[in-house]
Amino acid sequence: MTKPKPYGLGWRSHTDKPFGVRWPTSPIKITGIYFSYNVKLAYQLNMQGPLDSLKKCLQLWSSRSLTLIGKTQIIKSLMIPKFLYMFNLIVVKVEDIKQINNLLYKFVWKGPDKIARNSMIGDIGQGGINFLDIFALYDSFRVKWVQRFLNPNIVHPWKMFLSFYLRPLGGRLIFRCNYEIKYLPVALPQFYQSLLHSWSKSTTQVNTSSANIVIWNNAQILINGKSVCYLDFIAKGIVYIADLYIRKGHFKTWNVLNQLGLTQSHLLL
Fold it and tell me: C-alpha distances in angstroms, 107 versus 80, 124, 151, 178?
């Protein structure tokens, strides 16, 4: 058994050597994921293995005479599983997802596409072959993280970290907001940004009544180029556009808002 070594995760400077201990500087692997002070190196190490394995599998099966449906089944059962663990735990660059997708389509057609990719993803009854939508698959892992976070029956320490970062955004309220990552007034870790991005794509609402739109973190309501989230207003029950009205077309007066406990310091303008 090798002697365990300490590794400082999240340090601002990996040159610090506290406690007189010898701290390793090379990447380490924990439950299948590489960690390193060099973020680019860690990402390369995490992606290189599955990519190399995919290319070997493609080479092995490319010489077989398979139908389109047969190739689709090989992709779903033997090729894509190589990436599922990574998709769940790290942020994969869009260009790498595109690379994987292009390799799969090249395997199917042995060259340029002969049918529109959107058509292939459709059901067989609709003229498709149930081909894999790898972008939707990647987003689904992020959506599941959010669903677990919102589920009160699931209790786990990781929720405390996400709750901490979302606190300035109203906590769980953010998942009901019409936000855009670039306009949010706080900086979020890359992984949490990816959760919010995938969630917003999966919950786009069409023809939502303006009265039911959340005011806060709204990409259409900006101050100095950023969306706003006033926690005091949320605590007083002012969350939706409708909460600013007494009746349709008539805003609540400041006296009404003042009765809720809001003071001059809470004025929006």
Answer: 13, 20, 40, 39
pTM of the model: 0.85
Q: Is 56 helix (H, G, I), strand (E, B) or coil?
A: helix
Phi, psi dihedrals of residue 227, rounded to the nearest 5°: -70, 165
**pLDDT tens digits, 143-192:** 999 999 999 999 999 999 999 999 999 999 999 999 999 999 999 999 99
Closest by Cα among 38, 152, 158, 157 to 88: 158
8 Å CB contact between 134 and 141: no
pLDDT tens for each residue of 55-93: 999 999 998 999 999 999 999 999 999 999 999 999 999
Beta bridge partners of residue 251, listed in sequence order: 245
- 134-150 vs 190-202: helix axis angle to the nearest 10? 100
> With the C-alpha atoms ordered 91, 93, 99, 101, is the resulting torsion angle positive or negative?
positive
Nearest alpha carbon to residue 242 among 210, 268, 195: 210
Instruction: Give the separation between CA 165 and CA 215, rounded to whole angstroms.
Output: 20
